[in-house]
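Exercise 7. Given the encoded structure of a 231-residue chain, write a plausible sequence.
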């Protein structure tokens, strides 16, 4: 199994070196600047009787809304990549299938509060131990589940230029978000703002990673029947 995994990694690296990708630095810069501006606006544009952290702590706040939108975009880009690979009869599709459904689930979770509801139910029956609430434990479990899946799909991730690097940045912000969320008790205005801002940056890089993966597929796409794209 290890030898087979190593062989797939080598194959992925060879494929990666043969692919092309346009310069995406400008995309990173524009999107990140927009996210920073959005966070600043979220601090200003609040109801007159609401606390300063309203848009960060409320499930109906601006941060949750944009997070759900970005996750939906990540799912859509993943689905588009999947369709391109199916069209090309490429067998490396499991990564994009999992990402399509995984990002869609997280988008629904943001809006329908799956982990908050599960956390409240568990809090009624058993204590969260060293963690603040079961809500925090469920969020951490998301990362625990995602990490081995990404390791198993590492050869597929490596095939696409910059995707794994972008997802690594996303995971770093996810770690910051989870650390603040699970250790800050009582929560303060600053801790809530930093926690939710880190979550938003994490989701931003998930969406960018999915987009860059799609962009790489489009840039190197060749129809399986050998005809040109103009036909």
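Solution.
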């Amino acid at each position: 199994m290890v030898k087979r995994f190593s062989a797939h990694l080598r194959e992925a690296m060879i494929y990666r070196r043969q692919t092309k990708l346009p310069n995406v630095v400008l995309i990173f810069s524009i999107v990140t600047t927009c996210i920073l501006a959005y966070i600043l606006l979220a601090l200003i544009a609040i109801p007159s009787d609401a606390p300063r952290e309203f848009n960060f702590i409320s499930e109906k706040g601006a941060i949750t809304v944009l997070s759900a939108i970005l996750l939906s975009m990540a799912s859509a880009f993943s689905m588009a990549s999947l369709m391109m690979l199916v069209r090309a009869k490429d067998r490396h599709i499991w990564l994009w299938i999992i990402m399509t459904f995984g990002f869609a689930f997280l988008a629904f979770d943001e809006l329908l509060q799956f982990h908050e509801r599960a956390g409240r139910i568990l809090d009624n029956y058993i204590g969260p131990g060293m963690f603040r609430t079961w809500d925090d434990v469920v969020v951490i479990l998301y990362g625990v589940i995602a990490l081995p899946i990404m390791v198993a799909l590492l050869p597929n991730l490596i095939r696409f230029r910059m995707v794994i690097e972008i997802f690594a940045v996303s995971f770093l912000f996810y770690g910051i978000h989870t650390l603040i969320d699970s250790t800050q008790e009582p929560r303060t205005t600053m801790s809530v703002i930093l926690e939710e801002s880190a979550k938003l940056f994490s989701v931003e890089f998930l969406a960018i990673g999915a987009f860059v993966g799609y962009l790489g597929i489009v840039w190197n796409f060749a129809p399986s029947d050998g005809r040109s794209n103009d036909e």
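Remark. Residues 48 and 204 are 29 Å apart (CA to CA). Students should compare their own answers with the one above.
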